[in-house]
Design brief:
Helices cover 25% and strands 24% of the residues. It is an alpha/beta fold. The mean pLDDT is 92.
């Protein structure tokens, strides 16, 4: 690509100077001049009202994707139990499919897992592509990649959603490479652009300081992994769907790995994404002693303790209990925010809580803007009083 200036057309308006991200354009003798700093990025082209900036680039054409239809969800399961994120993905898949006038399909892989298909259908799947074989259990990357790749090439879905779990983060990148499409990871929001009718994929970027919205115009399917706890499940006991059996032909030599034994780590607490009550702390908790207070309150409420990024970095809570754009996204029945100012990065992870109680000394703390109830005061006074009043009388 080459960019140049037609000096006879240039009126020296300086729009191109402002648009250039590399400071490669300067006005000399009333005309724009391109220096050797130019990377031919093309940012200046659309800014020139006089069409004085020219390029020899041929615009990229969007292929015809009219034969790609359907919103697909990879139905992750372990030991015959569907991952919660799978049901959440079926919820947003219904929204996207309705916008596109298409059907929702789930891809279910494993050994003797057909009994899970009715649950997928109740949660919105119109079709369940079922592949059963001993080689598919437990999960192994190449075995699952091969089956899903074959199904994609045969049925041509428009959209494919995968949970941003350990399995999903392993499967999705390799699958996207196999089928030659882009992948947006760790999405927190999905929607359909009303004009272009493509999927808009929103995810945190630059350490959670900004939210980026990404669109895939030039390949199909549009692939995204989605964080657990972000989307809402939808269930319809009357919903009907079909199960489509798939032939499985896998050579063990192709898979290259063999699982000898599976070790299940014993959890010390309920995963924070499954907790009905979360007592969360931030910088204002002031150390481990403060978090012991929060744990006492959480125990009384049969809940779990969470926190902000700084709490996880200081070691006050495990990293898997961090809430926010760079942590977990949660939607408990009750979220009690203690000593949390309410930066946008944290609010993005807990905004979908049913009820939010905020405890903070700062009356102007942003957390109060999203709280259902606010308590202005020192949490070291408020929390002990809550504990006292919630403790059953002996």
């Amino acid at each position: 690509m080459t960019v140049w200036i037609e000096r006879d057309l240039c009126d020296g308006c300086r729009r191109c100077v402002k648009a250039c991200p590399y400071d490669a354009i300067a006005i000399e003798d009333g005309k724009a001049n391109i220096s050797e700093r130019c990377t031919n990025c093309g940012a200046c082209l659309a800014q020139c009202k006089k069409e004085a900036i020219q390029s020899d680039t041929v615009p990229k054409q969007i292929p015809d994707f009219s034969d790609y239809r359907g919103v697909w969800v990879y139905a992750e399961q372990r030991d015959g139990v569907l991952a919660k994120v799978t049901l959440e993905l079926l919820g947003i898949a219904q929204v996207l499919a309705q916008e596109r006038g298409q059907k929702v399909s789930a891809v279910l892989l494993g050994d003797k897992v057909e009994s899970l298909a009715p649950e997928l259908i109740r949660h919105g799947a119109d079709h369940v592509h079922l592949a059963e074989d001993p080689s598919l259990e437990p999960y192994r990357t190449l075995a699952h990649v091969k089956i899903v790749e074959t199904l994609i090439k045969a049925h041509k879905p428009e959209i494919l959603l995968i949970g941003a779990t350990h399995i999903g983060r392993d499967l999705a990148p390799r699958l996207s490479r196999r089928v030659g499409v882009g992948l947006t990871a760790d999405c927190t929001a999905l929607s359909i652009d009303p004009e272009e009718k493509i999927m808009l994929q929103t995810r945190p970027a630059f350490g959670g300081n900004v939210m980026a919205t990404i669109a895939n115009r030039y390949s199909r399917p549009q692939m995204a992994t989605v964080r657990p706890g972000v989307m809402e499940t939808r269930i319809d006991e009357q919903h009907e769907g079909t199960i489509i059996p798939c032939q499985v032909r896998i050579d063990e030599d192709e898979i290259k790995t063999k699982v000898l034994e599976v070790f299940q780590e014993k959890r010390k607490h309920t995963p924070i994404t499954d907790a009905k009550v979360i007592v969360a702390g931030g910088r204002g908790v002031n150390g481990k002693d403060g978090f012991e207070l929060l744990r006492a309150l959480a125990e009384l409420l049969d809940g779990e303790v969470g926190g902000t990024r700084i709490a996880a970095e200081k070691g006050y809570i495990p990293t898997e209990c961090q809430v926010g754009q760079t942590g977990k996204t949660v939607r408990p029945e009750l979220y009690i925010a203690c000593g949390i100012s309410g930066a946008i990065q944290h609010r993005a992870g807990m905004m979908n809580s049913r009820y939010i109680i905020a405890i903070n000394k700062d009356t102007d703390a942003p957390i109060f803007k999203v709280a259902d109830w606010g308590i202005v005061g020192d949490l070291h006074d408020v929390v002990p009083e809550l504990i006292r009043q919630l403790t059953p009388a002996r």
